[in-house]
């Protein structure tokens, strides 16, 4: 991959807006969670966007993270013994993480693109994906999540209700308040649309 020079004009403006979305407090929380979830052998990044990017760039830590949310027998991503050094292998490892995260339940709209992380184009999107993954892990509450449950918001869950046949029948005879009422309403004094008003003196 060729190194890119600085961007100018509109490109620079857009890139600077994207960079402003990156949350350093959120970075701290995500690093804490990843270290608790994967173990201290993953190390810690240097503070800031660049340190966070370099830490996650080869995809190994991300793969360990998504694997830690599954039981021992069914790890979705193969983690190499030696971190990949070739660019396409690193990108492939990140792509495997994204596929596993999607299978875990992260929606496509919450997913980052491989270049967002690899080229540092949008690290706020990377944070968004990790937040969505953490929220799902807390919501599932299947014993694989490690860390403070208050770090992530629980996702809304379906709450099914079962009504008996009698309750359903009774409901058919109730007029909801949203439908209003026709008591007291009349059309007295109204004329048809478009007809002139009759004034008799």
Helix coverage percent? 40-55%
> What general outline do the C-alpha atoms trace?
elongated
Please give the CATH architecture of the domain at 12-151: Orthogonal Bundle
Backbone structural class: mainly alpha
CATH class of the domain at 12-151: Mainly Alpha
Helix-strand sequence: HHHHHHHH
Number of distinct helices: 8
Strand content: under 5%
Instruction: Name the CATH superfamily assignment of the domain at 12-151.
Output: Calponin-like domain
- Kindly, what is the distance between the CA atoms of the first and last residues, rounded to a whole number of angstroms? 91 Å
Supply Rg.
Answer: 28 Å
- Catalogue the unreliable spans: none
CATH topology of the domain at 12-151: Actin-binding Protein, T-fimbrin, domain 1
The quaternary structure here is single chain
Sketch the major β-sheet: none
Beta strand count: 0
Q: Please state the average pLDDT score.
A: 79
GO biological process, one term: epithelial cell differentiation
GO cellular component, one term: cytoplasm
InterPro entries: Calponin-like, Calponin_repeat, CH_dom, CH_dom_sf, SM22_calponin
Protein name: Transgelin
Notes on the protein architecture:
This protein is an all-alpha fold and 201 residues long. It has a domain at 12-151: Calponin-like domain (Actin-binding Protein, T-fimbrin, domain 1, Orthogonal Bundle). It is built from eight helices and no strands. The protein has helices at 9-20, 24-38, 49-56, 60-68, 87-104, 114-118, 123-140, 165-171. Helix 2 (24-38) crosses helix 7 (123-140) and helix 4 packs parallel to helix 5. The longest helix is centred in the middle third of the chain and has 18 residues, at 87-104. The protein is elongated, with a radius of gyration of 28 Å. The mean pLDDT is 79.
């Amino acid at each position: 991959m060729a190194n890119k020079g600085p961007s100018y004009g509109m490109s620079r403006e857009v890139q600077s807006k994207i960079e402003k979305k990156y949350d350093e407090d959120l970075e701290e929380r995500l690093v804490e969670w990843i270290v608790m979830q994967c173990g201290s052998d993953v190390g810690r990044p240097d503070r800031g966007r660049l340190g966070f990017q370099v830490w996650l760039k080869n995809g190994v830590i991300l793969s360990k993270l998504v694997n830690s949310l599954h039981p021992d027998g069914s790890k979705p991503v193969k983690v190499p013994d030696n971190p990949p050094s070739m660019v396409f292998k690193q990108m492939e490892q990140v792509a495997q993480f994204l596929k596993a995260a999607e299978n875990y339940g992260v929606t496509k709209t919450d997913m980052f693109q491989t270049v967002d992380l690899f080229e540092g184009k949008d690290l706020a999107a990377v944070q968004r994906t990790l937040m969505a993954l953490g929220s799902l892990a807390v919501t599932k509450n299947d014993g694989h999540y490690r860390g403070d449950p208050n770090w992530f918001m629980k996702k809304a869950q379906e709450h099914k209700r079962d009504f008996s046949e009698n309750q359903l029948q009774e409901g058919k005879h109730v007029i909801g308040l949203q439908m209003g009422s026709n008591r007291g309403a009349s059309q007295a004094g109204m004329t048809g649309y478009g007809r002139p008003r009759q004034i008799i003196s």
